[in-house]
Write a structure and sequence with these properties.
alpha/beta; 7-stranded mixed β-sheet; 3 helices
């Protein structure tokens, strides 16, 4: 086992984007991909092998210390939350991944399992929860807060002093207005201006 080897959970399209960020960051060596039980996929498509399934995480922990969730989140956060809980219970180290092409102020707090993708911006005073996706070109402005297991999609903007809860999805190019306070478990579609929970719809979390 090499130092800083990491396994990735999920081999779909979001995984491909995560791989590119991880490779560019240069902190971890990707050992391979862990897929859902029952899938017959043999290769991630980017040259990394499928090395196991999610029911084998306990055995994989004996070989690897680091793991990262690369399952996407187009709506519900249920699967990402389930995988995160499993990794925590098995005492995997779940790092923070930050693209070298992103801007992250030193005056922010970002928690474990979150990825900050290419050309995202996280400004001073922002606080980001566990297991979040800050996707390509997203903007988290000053003093904003993002709850756990929330996906801020490509080009979405959280203006200053805004808050979005846990288990949320903010669609591409959506804009959250300055100072908005948004609850947990909400879906906000692409391209809209979000002022309150009335602009979204409740998620059905399993």
């Amino acid at each position: 086992m090499f130092e800083n080897e990491i396994i990735l959970l999920g081999a779909g399209g979001h995984c491909h984007s995560c791989i590119d960020v991880i490779e560019k960051e240069g902190v971890f060596n990707i050992a391979g991909i862990v897929e859902q039980k029952g899938k017959n996929q043999q290769n991630s498509g980017l040259g990394y092998p499928i090395i196991g399934y999610d029911n084998e995480l306990s055995a994989l922990k004996k070989r690897f210390d680091y793991a990262f969730i690369t399952v996407g989140q187009m709506g519900s956060s249920t699967l990402r939350k389930k995988l995160y809980k499993a990794l925590v219970e098995l005492k995997f180290s779940i790092p923070i991944i930050i693209s070298p092409f992103a801007h992250v102020s030193k005056h922010t707090k970002i928690n474990d399992g979150t990825i900050v993708m290419h050309h995202a911006c996280v400004n001073a005073g922002a606080v980001i929860g566990n297991n979040c996706i800050l996707n390509t070109k997203s903007l988290i402005e000053h003093d904003s807060k993002v709850g756990d297991h929330t996906h801020i999609s490509t080009g979405a903007i959280l203006n200053g002093n805004s808050t979005i809860g846990s288990n949320c999805f903010v669609g591409s190019n959506a804009t959250i207005v300055n100072g908005a306070k948004l609850p947990d478990n909400f879906f906000f579609k692409a391209g809209i201006v979000i002022k309150s929970e009335e602009d979204g719809k409740p998620q059905k979390e399993e």
